[in-house]
Amino acid sequence: MRGETDPVAEMLDVLDISSGDARTTEDIFTGISHPMPTGRIFGGQVLAQAIIAADRTTGDDRVPHSMHGYFLRPGDATRGVTLSVDRIHDGRSFSTRRTQVYQDGVPIFSMIASFEHEDAGLDHQSRMPEDVLGPEEALARWETTRRHPLSQRLLDRNPIEVVHAEGAIYDAVHGEHVPAQNVWMRAKRPIGSDPALHRAVLAYMSDLTIQEPVLRGHGIAWSQPGLKVASLDHAMWWHRPVRVDEWLLYVQNSPSARAGRGLSSGRIFTREGELVASVGQEIMVRVP
């Protein structure tokens, strides 16, 4: 596999799902999984695979504008996945698709996504924060660990470069304990010019670090003994075209945590300040 020496190539292999000849009322696709030290599939993988599968069943004039998905069961990262797409609706302006991701015939992720034929219309956006440390300055200021304490994933094997403006929370929470943070991200090398691929990789990236505002607000690092975190659901809205191999700022906050659950929201901006996506995710969090 190309990814043995290139983590970006490995990610692209994972997102290169295959379509089968068999089709009844649904379109069927298959894909491989990222190797993960814990043996559990990374959520961003199935998010991206599911949107790619759904996208392939729509016309070239349709682009995804929103998705809502639930993580139903842990996936086995040593095995591949099967994806089924139900073409729920095709209208003049919008198409709706339901994608289920299976292992051993059991769904591990379920998503509904909406696609739009884009037309001219009203246009406004939130402003990007102005006082955020840039990625180069943040890299120079903060030291980072080589291995993620909870997932045990080697960070240099991550296809996405991740830089915390306020410092990572892998081993300790620096500064004030507030339920908010800013994270710079980009693919570690160019991935071509296919807009559908860039949208899918943005979905992949959106599952990285979005859990952290919940933890940061309580001064909890990923290395906390006995910490258990699992994503419950994920929502995403694509607002504007994006290139994921250029720096993006992921502005995150957590408005609430209660009863073993925490909610995070995020806005993703280009370095020039254009809002390209919004994200919401609820997690289960258990602290001894």
UniProtKB/TrEMBL annotation:
InterPro entries: Acyl-CoA_hotdog, Acyl_CoA_thio, HotDog_dom_sf, TesB_ACOT8-like_N, TesB_C. Residues 171-282 form the Acyl-CoA thioesterase 2 C-terminal domain. GO terms for molecular function: fatty acyl-CoA hydrolase activity. GO terms for biological process: acyl-CoA metabolic process; fatty acid catabolic process. Its EC number is 3.1.2.-. It is an enzyme of class 3 (hydrolase). Residues 34-115 form the Acyl-CoA thioesterase-like N-terminal HotDog domain. SUPFAM superfamilies: Thioesterase/thiol ester dehydrase-isomerase. Keywords: Hydrolase. Belongs to the C/M/P thioester hydrolase family. This is Acyl-CoA thioesterase 2. It comes from Microbacterium laevaniformans.
